[in-house]
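Expect chain and fold; see below:
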Amino acid sequence: MTAPGFFYKSTMEGRRIVVAYRQFRNADPPQVLRLWNESGLGRGAAQGIRCDEFDSLVIAQTYFDPAGMILATADDNRVIGFVHAGFAADESKKCLNKKTGVICAVIVDPQFRRQGIGRELIRRAEEYLRQSGAETIFAGGAEPRDPFYVGLYGGSEPAGFLESDASAAPFFTALGYGFFERHLVFQRKLGVGGPEVMCVRLMNAKRQSKLAAASASEPKDWWWSTRKGRLDSMHLGLVPKAGGSLMARVCVVGLDLYMSGWKARAIGISGLQVSENMRRKGYGQLLLDQVCRRVRDDMIQLAEAHVLETDLAGIAVLKSAGFKQVDAGIVYQKPGT
């Protein structure tokens, strides 16, 4: 998707500059990453990313479409903005659902903001999505509408556009996007100064179960494999000491790409599931606590987990396991879609 450039006056330089829009090219990742690292995306964006990491987690996706990543360039061919649009998974999680489009990322160089570039990028991304069949358009990735940037934005998993990214909310609100859902971001500090969780219910659950690998219950669907499957991950669960099937399970992913910004080695915890007959007995709380204790021995300093704002039970479990809210992310929806 390319179009003739247009002129605008830069308030930084006081001269007229031609801005052109075009689709992604193979030589673009260094400039895209420069823009990513210099744009102040907040605590939820990985920093210091290398081209091979960006290629593995974004460009190498089997469904990556160069036409869905639209770049704005200045008259010196410098990339000054980009937007990336994709599609959600279908219900089977075996292929894309092109009726549901997602604005996964939009960034404009701080020196060129408030000049209409971001608005034009979004307009072109919406046009791309509609021409590809999208009937509903969201802004901000979140399961199962998070085709790109798993491991690069959001922390343990995409959660819309984070509130710590201060420019996101006013930008999408000004474009008329409305609220769709809010995800809460929780973290627990590990090691010295971290919380020590213990209660009678937890002690009873601990006496009856033990932490074990849960590889047999790992997700096998294509959607998980092409996103979280590209990260270092493991599945852990609780099993009865007397023998038997899994009582609870979680997925743990490494978040080493955030080490530069967070100044700590971290892991993400997601997909907490407790067997129906084991709920309200402390096994979810115990599993989270046991996972934190195990990775602490591997010099991990921080654990992060996300939960929908409407999931009161999930919030209660995280808090009971010593997690505290540090951020939130919002998914927006295009009106009329």
Residues 117-131 form the longest helix (15 residues).
